[in-house]
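Note to self: keep these together.
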Amino acid sequence: MGGRWDSSGAPASDPVPTWGSMSLHVGSDVRVRCYTYPDAKPILSVSSSGPELSMTCRDHRGAVTSADLAFAREVVSAAQCYLAALEELHARPCRADEEPGAA
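Structure:
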């Protein structure tokens, strides 16, 4: 189960915890966008011809908190790790039996 943790690695106390679960296996139709507004927190959207995931911080129109910034930094860090892992795998030479469409 996912969740937020404090600096010691323990689950963060939160009167209204985050909930939900979703797995998305992306294809060529996926789009990632960030919608910004002058007086509200942004919305990060991952959409496709099928499912869509939208993320924003609780209290969408409230003041930006240090927790909001910490969450955004976690998202960026995880996305950088994801990109680095894909780039590393992409740079490896493929064997003939690993190439798409190889029999």
